[in-house]
């Protein structure tokens, strides 16, 4: 074979580069590293916040036709509801007069009992109105996006309620929007109090196949039955006490376990919520009240110290005047003796 006809190109083994399996393992390792870094060190949080800020105008623009259509439908349906509500209001007016009289009597009695027992006044919490934009796209969680964010003063961990009861809690805050995790999410938990028996417990978000919510670790012989109303206990320092959370839907007691299986139905329907209130966390309010009490105590101490100082100065002046008058009396007595 002539020397010039030899193939001088490298074998195919050196032209192919890394194999497909090597590329797959490398990409998988990189993906795992990024997930761990984001979960532990929040390296992707600035990028996520910037992306949410850039997509916020686009989201609002895409939602504008839907909002316009809903407003048009709400107007037509609102006229019919207004006519029906007027008739119903006329029928309920007489009943409400009697209930109002009873409520005023109970309120006066409750106020007297509070003064006798020296109970503190009901806690007032700051609130911010917001509107639900859309539900998060994650099929394995129950989260919604609202149109208020850090620019309006929303904080992570703030409770979110509507006119029926507790909806959930703010878990992620952006500049002009925030993410709310609903109570029906599988990772959500809230301390509750049975309003009938005053028994405390913890309500968890249930799996989609088992129900929206459940009350775990409840003894099989516990005094709980269907229809019991559960409200917030206020022990977690986040939710104010007394807010409706859920009602007991079903209680299943089995002999093979020492715990009862309690299914709950949330009072506030998450799928129907549109307008919500964002409350200030209870721990923030308690911290502000503690600071105000400390400032008031400091001012009272300064006032008492100033009052004692003024009283001491007045006493010193009075003693000095009395001593001066005594010296003058002695001088006059000496002058009379010399004249004699």
UniProtKB/TrEMBL annotation:
Cellular component annotations (GO), alphabetically ordered: plasma membrane
* GO-annotated biological processes: regulation of cell shape
Q: Which InterPro entries match?
A: Cell/Rod_1 (IPR042177), Cell/Rod_MreC_2 (IPR042175), MreC (IPR007221), MreC_beta-barrel_core (IPR055342)
Domain Rod shape-determining protein MreC beta-barrel core: from-to ranges: 132-279
Q: Where does the record place the region Disordered?
A: 312-340
| Organism superkingdom | Bacteria
Q: Which family does it belong to?
A: Belongs to the MreC family.
Family matches, as NCBIfam families: mreC
Its biological purpose is as follows:
Involved in formation and maintenance of cell shape.
Q: Mind telling me what this protein is named?
A: Cell shape-determining protein MreC
Q: Which organism is it from?
A: Paucibacter sediminis
Highest lineage ranks of the organism?
Answer: Bacteria, Pseudomonadati, Pseudomonadota, Betaproteobacteria, Burkholderiales
The coding gene here is mreC
């Amino acid at each position: 074979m002539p020397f010039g006809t030899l193939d001088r190109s490298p074998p195919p083994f050196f032209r192919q580069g890394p194999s497909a399996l090597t590329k797959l393992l490398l990409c998988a390792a990189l993906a795992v590293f990024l997930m761990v870094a984001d979960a532990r060190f929040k390296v992707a949080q600035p990028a996520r916040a910037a992306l949410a800020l850039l997509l916020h105008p686009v989201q609002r623009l895409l939602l504008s036709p839907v909002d316009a259509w809903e407003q048009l439908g709400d107007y037509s349906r609102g006229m019919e509801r207004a006519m029906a509500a007027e008739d119903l209001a006329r029928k309920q007016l007489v009943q409400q007069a009697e209930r109002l009289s009873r409520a005023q009597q109970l309120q006066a009695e409750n106020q007297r009992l509070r003064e006798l027992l020296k109970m503190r006044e009901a806690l007032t919490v700051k609130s911010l109105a917001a509107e639900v934009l859309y539900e998060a796209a994650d099929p394995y969680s129950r989260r919604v996006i609202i149109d208020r964010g850090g620019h309006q003063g929303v904080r992570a961990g703030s409770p979110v309620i509507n006119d029926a009861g507790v909806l959930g809690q703010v878990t992620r805050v952006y500049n002009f929007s925030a993410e709310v995790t609903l109570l029906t999410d599988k990772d959500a938990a809230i301390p509750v109090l049975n309003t009938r028996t005053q028994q405390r417990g913890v309500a968890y978000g249930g799996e989609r196949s088992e129900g929206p919510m459940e009350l775990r670790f409840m003894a099989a012989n516990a005094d709980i039955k269907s229809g019991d109303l559960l409200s917030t206990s206020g022990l977690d320092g986040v939710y104010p006490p007394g807010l409706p959370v859920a009602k007991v839907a079903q209680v299943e007691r089995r002999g093979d376990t020492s715990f009862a299986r309690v299914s709950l139905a949330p009072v506030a329907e998450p799928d129907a919520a549109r307008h919500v209130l964002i409350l200030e966390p209870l721990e923030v309010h308690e911290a502000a009240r503690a600071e105000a009490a400390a400032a008031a105590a400091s001012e009272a101490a300064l006032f008492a110290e100033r009052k004692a100082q003024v009283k001491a100065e007045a006493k010193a002046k009075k003693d000095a005047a009395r001593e001066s008058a005594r010296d003058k009396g002695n001088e006059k007595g000496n002058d009379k003796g010399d004249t004699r």
